C-alpha cells in the first residue's frame, strides 16, 4: 500500500467523496423513458409500477404427477375410484369430475371442475384401465396449487426505480409482462487524452506507454452489456475543443481520461468551460483521482450533456468508473440511491492520509464476517494488483485505521 | 418459506449437491483453447501463464508536473538551476542534464539522462525563462517512478486458469499484452420442453402458462455477455429425438428445461440415452430441482456433447443456472474450483427438510457480518420473490437450522 502522505492532500477547499456523489445525484436531470420488450430490458431501471393483470397460478393445477380425485372428505386407504380420462399439462379439458371419479393428471395441468384433492402417483395402485385405488390416507385439497396463490390480479409486481435483474426478468415474464417502460440508457462517448498514450502498437515509441484506459473502460461497459464509442485525441487545445464540441451535441455523457489537472497540457477543463459547460465540481479530497471534474451543458432542446473528466492515471480511471461513472449512469436513469457499500473488518492497520483513499483489496468471508486485506502496489500509475483484488475499500481521510476496525467497500467482480 | 417436508425427499440413493458438482468437475473434458485479442477476452479463462516482456514503468519517469534536476545530493532551499528545456509526456527527448541544470517535465514523461531528482512545481519559483529556484529542501530521487518498479521483464503477470475480469484486462493492457490464449467458450443450445409453456402470446390458451424459462436463461447469458440459441420443442418423443440429435452434432452443451422427471411425457432422459448419451447423474437430493439430469455423448472426433437437463419449474431452472450451469460452463473452460460460497448468519430458524434446499434470500451487512433472511413464496413454481432476493442460500438436508447459525450462499446480482 502507498504510505506516502502527499503534500497536495492538504489543499484547502476540496469537497469530499460523499459531497461529490451527492452533487451527482442532485444536479443530474433524469433521461426520458422508453418502452422496451422485456427481453431487451436487462439491467434497466423501471419507470413505472407494474401491477399484475393475471393470477399466478393462472388456474388451479396439480402440483404433482398423479390423479385428480373427487371425494367429499379425507380419503381412507384402499378406497377406489373410476378412472375417466387423462389431462396433460398444457392441454385444456372439458372434463368435470363427479364423486368417486378420478382423472390421470400431470404437474402443472389444470385440475378439472369437481376435483377435491390430488393423489401423487406414488400412493396410487392401478387396478385396471378404468379403476385405481388409493393406498394411503389422503386429505382434501392435497397437492393442488390454487389459482392466484402466488399473485392475484392487481398485485404490485415491481416498483418504479427497480433494476431489472435476471430474476426480475424471469419473474415478470411468468406474470405475462411483455413490455416495460424504462429509463433510457445514456449515450456515452469516451475520450482518451494524452500524447503519452499509445492508441495502437504502431503508436508505441520511446516516451509513450501502453494504454490501459481504453481497454479498461471498454471492458467495464461490456461487463454491463453496453457498448461505448471510444475516441483518442491529441494534447492540443484545438483538437480537444473540436471533439468535445461535436460530442456534446450527440451524447448524454462524455467520459474523458486525463487532462483535468493543472498541467500546461491539461485542456479538458478550460476547453469545456469555454464551450459553455457549467462546472458542478472539480477536485475531490481522494486518492487516487483528486483532479476529477464534472460539468454539464444545457442544450437548446432542454436536454443536457454531462462531462465526467477522470484523471489519466489508470488507478484513478478504475476507481472513477466504479464509484463515479456508476453514480452518473444510475442518476441519469433515475436511480439516486448511494452505492450498496459492504462493511468489512480490516485485517491490518492502514496509515493515515490527508485524503480519503480507495484501496484495492482482497475480501473473504470468515464465519459470516467479511475481512479485507490490502494488496501491494496501490500507487496511482499501478494496476497489476487488479489481478488479485476483488473489492475497493474506502479509508477515511485523516485517520489511522487499526486492525479490527470496520470499513466500507464495494465488490468489483472476480 | 416452504415448510413442507416432502415425502419424495426420502427416496433412496440420491446423490448430494456436492457429489453432483464433483461429478461435473471430474467428468467434463476441457474444451480446446484459442487465441483472442485481449479486448475480446472479457470473462474468459486463461490457458497460459503470462510473463511480462516489458518493464513497468517502461522507463524512469516523473511522478508529478515539475522539474527534473541534476544535483549531487540533497538540495537546500533557494538553490537555483539553469532551465534548459521541456519534456512533455509522450514525447521522447535527447536531452542530457549536467549538474546544475533543470528541465520542465510533466507527470509520466521520461526523465532525461543525468536526472537525480524531481521537484514538483509547487516548490519551484521561476526566476526567468532560463532560471528556476527550489524553495524547499529536496532529497535525491524524489518523485521519480523507476523503470520496472511495478513489474520487471519476466515477471509473472497472470496464471493459467485465471478469469479475465475488467481489472485483469486493464492490467494486462498496461503491460502491452495484445492477445491471450484462452479456453473456448462452449457453444450452448437451450431446449424448452413442455406443451404447457406458451412460446408466444399467440400460443397462450387455457391450460398453457407464460414462459419464464426462456427469458430467464436468455437474460442469464446476456448478463455474462454471451448469446445462446433457444429452441422450443413439443412433448413428443419424435420431436425431442430429432432436435437433440441435430443439436448434439453442433453444440458443446445442450441445456434443457422440463421433461426430466418420471412422468409419462418426460422424454428427455430416455431419448438422450437412446441417442447414445451416457448418464453422469440423474436426481439430486435437493429442493428445488430434484430430477436434474446430466449426460455426455462422445463424438467421433473425440469431442463431447454434454446435456444438462433442468426440471421445468422456474425455481429449479433459476437455481440450476446459478449452481449447475455455472459449474458446467466453468469446467468446460478448465475452471474446476468450487463456487465462491459466502458464509452468513441466519436471522431466523429454518425448518428441517429431507433434501438440501436452495432458498432465495435477502442478504445485508451489519457491521461486517453478513446476515440472511428468507423470503416468502419459495415453492418451485413461484419466482416473484426474485424481485427482492439477492442471494441463494444452502440449507443442509435433514437439519433444523437455528437463528444465528452459519450457512453458505451465493450472491445472485441486484
Q: What do you see in this structure?
A:
The structure is a homodimer. By secondary structure, chain A is of the alpha/beta class. Chain A folds into 3 domains: about 1-30 and about 185-414, Molybdenum Cofactor Biosythetic Enzyme, Chain A; about 40-55 and about 150-185, Molybdopterin biosynthesis moea protein, domain 2, CATH 3.90.105; about 60-145, Beta Complex (Molybdopterin biosynthesis moeA protein, domain 3). Helices cover about 15% and strands about 30% of the residues of chain A. A 6-stranded mixed β-sheet of chain A has the order 7-4-6-5-9-8, with no helix packed on it. A 6-stranded mixed β-sheet of chain A has the order 16-13-17-21-20-18, sandwiched between helices. A 5-stranded mixed beta barrel of chain A has the order 22-24-23-25-26. In chain A, a hairpin with a 5-residue loop joins strand 20 (about 295-300) and strand 21 (about 305-310). In chain A, helix 3 packs parallel to helix 6. The longest helix of chain A has 19 residues, at about 315-330. The first copy, chain A, is elongated, with a radius of gyration of 31 Å. The relative contact order of chain A is 0.14. Chains A and B meet through helix 2, strand 15, helix 3, strand 22 and strand 23 of A and helix 2, strand 15, helix 3, strand 22 and strand 23 of B.
Would you summarize the structure shown here?
The structure is a homodimer of 414-residue chains. Chain A is an alpha/beta fold and 414 residues long.
Topology, element by element:
2 copies of one chain form a homodimer.
Chain A lengths: L16 H11 L5 E5 L12 E2 L9 E2 L3 E4 L10 E8 L13 E5 L11 E4 L3 E5 L2 E4 L9 E2 L10 E3 L7 H9 L4 E5 L4 E5 L4 E2 L10 E2 L2 H11 L5 E4 L4 H14 L2 E5 L10 H7 L3 E5 L3 E2 L5 E6 L5 E7 L3 H19 L9 E5 L9 E11 L2 E6 L16 E5 L10 E6 L3
Helix pairs in contact in A: 3-6
Amino acid at each position: 500500500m502507498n504510505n506516502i502522505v502527499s503534500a497536495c492532500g492538504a489543499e484547502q477547499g476540496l469537497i469530499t467523496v460523499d459531497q461529490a456523489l451527492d452533487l451527482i445525484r442532485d444536479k443530474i436531470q433524469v433521461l426520458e423513458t422508453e418502452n422496451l420488450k422485456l427481453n431487451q430490458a436487462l439491467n434497466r431501471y423501471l419507470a413505472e409500477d407494474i401491477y399484475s393483470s393475471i393470477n399466478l397460478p393462472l388456474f388451479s393445477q396439480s402440483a404433482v404427477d398423479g390423479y385428480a380425485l373427487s371425494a367429499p372428505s379425507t380419503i381412507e386407504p384402499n378406497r377406489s375410484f373410476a378412472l375417466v380420462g387423462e389431462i396433460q399439462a398444457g392441454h385444456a379439458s372439458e372434463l368435470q369430475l363427479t364423486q368417486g371419479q378420478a382423472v390421470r393428471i400431470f404437474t402443472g395441468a389444470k385440475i378439472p371442475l369437481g376435483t377435491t384433492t390430488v393423489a401423487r402417483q406414488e400412493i396410487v395402485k392401478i387396478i385396471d384401465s378404468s379403476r385405481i385405488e388409493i393406498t394411503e390416507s389422503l386429505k382434501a385439497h392435497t397437492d393442488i396449487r390454487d389459482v392466484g396463490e402466488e399473485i392475484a390480479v392487481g398485485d404490485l409486481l415491481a416498483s418504479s426505480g427497480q433494476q431489472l435483474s435476471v430474476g426480475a426478468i424471469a419473474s415478470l415474464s411468468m406474470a405475462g409482462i411483455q413490455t416495460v417502460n424504462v429509463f433510457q440508457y445514456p449515450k456515452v462517448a469516451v475520450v482518451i487524452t494524452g500524447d503519452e498514450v499509445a492508441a495502437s502498437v504502431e503508436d508505441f515509441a520511446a516516451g509513450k506507454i501502453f494504454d490501459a484506459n481504453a481497454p479498461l473502460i471498454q471492458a467495464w461497459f461490456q461487463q454491463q452489456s453496453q457498448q461505448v464509442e471510444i475516441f483518442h485525441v491529441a494534447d492540443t487545445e484545438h483538437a480537444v475543443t473540436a471533439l468535445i464540441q461535436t460530442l456534446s451535441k450527440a451524447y448524454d455523457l462524455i467520459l474523458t481520461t486525463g487532462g483535468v489537472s493543472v498541467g500546461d497540457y491539461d485542456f479538458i477543463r478550460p476547453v469545456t468551460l469555454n464551450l459553455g459547460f457549467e462546472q458542478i465540481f472539480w477536485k475531490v479530497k481522494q486518492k487516487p483521482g483528486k483532479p476529477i471534474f464534472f460539468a454539464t451543458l444545457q442544450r437548446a432542446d432542454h436536454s443536457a450533456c454531462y462531462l465526467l473528466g477522470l484523471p489519466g492515471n489508470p488507478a484513478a480511471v478504475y476507481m472513477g468508473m466504479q464509484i463515479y461513472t456508476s453514480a452518473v449512469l444510475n442518476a441519469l436513469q433515475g436511480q439516486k440511491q448511494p452505492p450498496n457499500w459492504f462493511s468489512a473488518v480490516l485485517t491490518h492497520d492502514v496509515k493515515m492520509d490527508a485524503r480519503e483513499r480507495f484501496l484495492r483489496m482482497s475480501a473473504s468471508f470468515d464465519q459470516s464476517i467479511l475481512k479485507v486485506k490490502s494488496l501491494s502496489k496501490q500507487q496511482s500509475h499501478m494496476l497489476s494488483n487488479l489481478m488479485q483484488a476483488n473489492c475497493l475499500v474506502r479509508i477515511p481521510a485523516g485517520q489511522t485505521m487499526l486492525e479490527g476496525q470496520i470499513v466500507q467497500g464495494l465488490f468489483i467482480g472476480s
